[in-house]
């Protein structure tokens, strides 16, 4: 298959031309927040502050405690709670403010942090592998690490690293927290403010508090400790039947990232390997149709899937093979993203495959998600405004899918990004602010994959598409310029609250 074409005269649909990257407004760059300052070990500074800290009632790690505390002088005033509050810079007693020699605790979100592993007074806390037992109880961390695929060098630390966000995601459940955390000694260590996910809540809705990925991780941790799991150990599964994008921004790479970030295990049936970067596609190697079908059979037969999506299908034989296997097996709700070309205008579907797409695949689809050029290609209708989106949705619905979503990324640019959803009766609009960025590589895959992930978790189509739209909007806000051309949408906004723990120590091995 030719990787690039030049317009209608050579068969390549010029509808797939996107506005040139350079013509768009500058990228919206978002960093992961202020860099974490890392300094030298502050043992000396910590030791200088010891008297004040001891007055404040801090529980000090043994390694910075130079000598046992002196016995109290007879008649000396017993430390009262107010002293502790004052020393920590909180309210209490008459004089609010830090005790002499104890630095004021930085405000939440003030962006200041001490050296890694140090609390607000500059005292090093014990390293994670010595603290982790408070989170996961003693022993068993090795198995937890094994289950979670984490490094074995510091299993408890690794388990703690995973457990902490899981606990945070669980919100309430004081007993559950206590069970895992154990008894806390000393004051609560300072935690820096969490980075707010970019774009989250743009539509007044947040992703669910009870994040399925984290609940599941916690479930596995508990199972490894022999404690009854909080939720089932196996996450929902979804399958993508799609091409590989060597640049990683679109295709199955984008699908897998999105699946994970939406709480499902992703499986793949690879249809083609593309040689692709941020500037375009320079090569395509198709996978034989029977091998594509065999991948679907293997995944569905053994692992099982709650929902399936298609992306780049490359050729009519591959479409036929996928249609055959989807008819035979239970692939769950079936989302067809009728990918015809890349955003750079490189063809990803042979022109003679359009008919197979219309007649074999669309009738099987729970939801089909064309962009405006694809909708035009499939229906022959111009799709240049909202009315055109609705008309195309009606025409596509007549081809057999249960739902049609005509996306608005290429429609009325400069206005909000509005997608039109149609089920044969209702016409619904999903509206989001349009982000001024040229880095929109993978938007369509991201939307379809997120929607598929939510379908795999049992949501209905409207709810799944709403969340898919919410996800892709945040991902466009989080997009970044990787390469000289169009950069990919970003997924890091979903994982930025990884705890600022130190990784486990790498110590010389005594074995061998
Ligand atoms: N600049 C943008 N800002 C916000 N949302 C966008 C932007 N560009 C595309 N989208 C959204 O991303 C999704 C994919 O749209 P579209 O670009 O039309 O598909 P494709 O990537 O298949 O060409 C749609 O929900 C669309 O509204
Ligand atoms: C393998 C593969 N699948 C899909 C796309 C479409 O993504 P985009 O429209 O963002 O280029 C792509 N470029 N490559």
Report on this structure.
The chain has 512 residues and is α/β, with parallel strands linked by helices. It has three domains: 58-64 and 79-125, no CATH class; 128-190 and 208-234, no CATH class; 237-494, Ribokinase (UDP-N-acetylmuramoyl-L-alanine:D-glutamate ligase). It has 17 helices and nine strands. It has helices spanning 43-48, 50-55, 81-87, 128-131, 133-136, 141-148, 155-170, 174-181, 212-224, 251-261, 289-303, 316-328, 354-361, 372-379, 386-397, 443-456, 461-477, and strands at 237-245, 265-277, 280-286, 307-310, 334-336, 367-368, 403-406, 417-422, 427-432. Helix 6 (141-148) crosses helix 7 (155-170) and helix 14 crosses helix 15 (386-397). Residues 242-245, 250-251, 274, 276, 311-312, 339, 342-343, 348, 441-442, 444-445 line the site of (4-amino-2-methylpyrimidin-5-yl)methyl dihydrogen phosphate. (4-amino-2-methylpyrimidin-5-yl)methyl dihydrogen phosphate binds at residues 242-245, 250-251, 274, 276, 311-312, 339, 342-343, 348, 441-442, 444-445. It catalyses: 4-amino-5-hydroxymethyl-2-methylpyrimidine + ATP = 4-amino-2-methyl-5-(phosphooxymethyl)pyrimidine + ADP + H(+); 4-amino-2-methyl-5-(phosphooxymethyl)pyrimidine + ATP = 4-amino-2-methyl-5-(diphosphooxymethyl)pyrimidine + ADP.
